[in-house]
């Protein structure tokens, strides 16, 4: 009998206890904050990927040999 063997009745009991302890309002507020955090995290990931793609495309555009760069 470990934590990995909770099952559906155990999860329902835990959910009821949490609901009784914290109330519906606090739980919905907490879930709203979790949702905002996930959205913010995804937005940050997408912005980071766009930055990396932009840097890669900028590096690919500059094909001037190194010795030519020094002359300019």
UniProtKB/TrEMBL annotation:
<dbReference type="InterPro" id="IPR003369">
    <property type="entry name" value="TatA/B/E"/>
</dbReference>
<comment type="similarity">
    <text>Belongs to the TatA/E family.</text>
</comment>
<keyword id="KW-0472">Membrane</keyword>
<dbReference type="GO" id="GO:0008320">
    <property type="term" value="F:protein transmembrane transporter activity"/>
</dbReference>
<keyword id="KW-1133">Transmembrane helix</keyword>
<dbReference type="GO" id="GO:0033281">
    <property type="term" value="C:TAT protein transport complex"/>
</dbReference>
<dbReference type="GO" id="GO:0043953">
    <property type="term" value="P:protein transport by the Tat complex"/>
</dbReference>
<comment type="function">
    <text>Part of the twin-arginine translocation (Tat) system that transports large folded proteins containing a characteristic twin-arginine motif in their signal peptide across membranes. TatA could form the protein-conducting channel of the Tat system.</text>
</comment>
<keyword id="KW-0813">Transport</keyword>
<dbReference type="InterPro" id="IPR006312">
    <property type="entry name" value="TatA/E"/>
</dbReference>
<keyword id="KW-0812">Transmembrane</keyword>
<protein>
    <recommendedName>
        <fullName>Sec-independent protein translocase protein TatA</fullName>
    </recommendedName>
</protein>
<feature type="compositionally biased region" description="Basic and acidic residues">
    <location>
        <begin position="58"/>
        <end position="72"/>
    </location>
</feature>
<dbReference type="Pfam" id="PF02416">
    <property type="entry name" value="TatA_B_E"/>
</dbReference>
<keyword id="KW-0811">Translocation</keyword>
<comment type="subunit">
    <text>The Tat system comprises two distinct complexes: a TatABC complex, containing multiple copies of TatA, TatB and TatC subunits, and a separate TatA complex, containing only TatA subunits. Substrates initially bind to the TatABC complex, which probably triggers association of the separate TatA complex to form the active translocon.</text>
</comment>
<feature type="transmembrane region" description="Helical">
    <location>
        <begin position="6"/>
        <end position="23"/>
    </location>
</feature>
<keyword id="KW-1003">Cell membrane</keyword>
<keyword id="KW-0653">Protein transport</keyword>
<feature type="region of interest" description="Disordered">
    <location>
        <begin position="49"/>
        <end position="72"/>
    </location>
</feature>
């Amino acid at each position: 009998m470990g934590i990995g063997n909770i099952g559906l009745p155990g999860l329902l009991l835990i959910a009821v206890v949490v609901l009784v302890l914290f109330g519906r309002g606090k739980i919905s507020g907490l879930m709203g904050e979790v949702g905002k955090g996930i959205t913010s995290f995804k937005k940050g990931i997408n912005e980071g990927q766009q930055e990396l793609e932009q840097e890669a495309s900028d590096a690919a555009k500059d094909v001037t040999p190194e010795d030519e760069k020094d002359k300019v």
